[in-house]
Amino acid sequence: MKVLLLEDDLELGNGVRIALSDQSMEVVWVRRLSDAASSLDANTFDMVLLDLGLPDGDGLELLGRLRRHRKNLPVLILSARDRLQDRLRGLDGGADDYLVKPFALAELLSRVRALARRSYGFEEDQLTLRGLALDEATRSVTVNGREVELSRCEFDLLALLLKRMGRVVTRRALEQQVLPGGPTNESNALDVHMSNLRRKIGKGYVRTVRGIGYVIDARQREESADSTLDGAP
Ligand code: CA
What we know:
By secondary structure, the chain is of the alpha/beta class. It has two domains: 2-120, 3-Layer(aba) Sandwich (Rossmann fold); 126-227, Arc Repressor Mutant, subunit A (Orthogonal Bundle). The protein is built from eight helices and 15 strands. It has helices at 10-22, 33-42, 59-69, 84-92, 105-120, 152-163, 171-178, 189-201, and strands spanning 2-6, 26-30, 47-51, 53-54, 57-58, 75-79, 97-100, 126-129, 132-135, 140-143, 146-148, 169-170, 206-209, 213-216, 227-229. The strands form four sheets. Strands 2-1-3-6-7 form a five-stranded parallel beta sheet, sandwiched between helices. It has a four-stranded antiparallel beta sheet with strand order 8-9-10-11, with helices on one face. The protein has a four-stranded antiparallel beta sheet with strand order 12-14-13-15. Strand 10 (140-143) and strand 11 (146-148) form a beta hairpin. Helix 6 (152-163) packs across helix 8 (189-201). The protein starts with a strand and ends with a strand. 25% of the residues are buried. Bound molecules: calcium ion.
């Protein structure tokens, strides 16, 4: 899911960006209305998180423009304006939800998930990609509808890479978070789990970034000189 975050507060914007990225959402963060407008022209977003008090204007202006041109794009307002009439203005202006600052990131994530579910029917615990589906609640994985049995390590590897889709996860981070004893001197333990995982889920998902780690690309991409898809680690 690709989210446009319009928030001029550096600390809050960065916190929200990290929290959403950790949920494997792709976040484009801008701090001015003008940048949001050009981002919206250049990208296709699944949701907008919209601050109202911005250095170059009021977020409600953008909301109005969005509702005139992109009727269905879900918008969640994040604002310190907490009076009833402010919230009504936002919701009547076409926002799908309104969260008053300060808020807990956990509540924001929960609202974002709920809005995504209402708008797109996304499954909360499921991570899916090109025929591959991972369900965290049941710890099950299917490839094109066929159940695949993974060991605990293999499942955790896949879940971690899927959650950070599009970003390279270093070998050390994977070893620390997935291997039972953390990084060990037996440097090929990770390679063994990775090769088993790839054999079970099939080609085309996990790409090796030589000397650094692994990544699952959001879109399938060609092999390049410094990376191999399903090749030797
Ligand atoms: Ca602001």
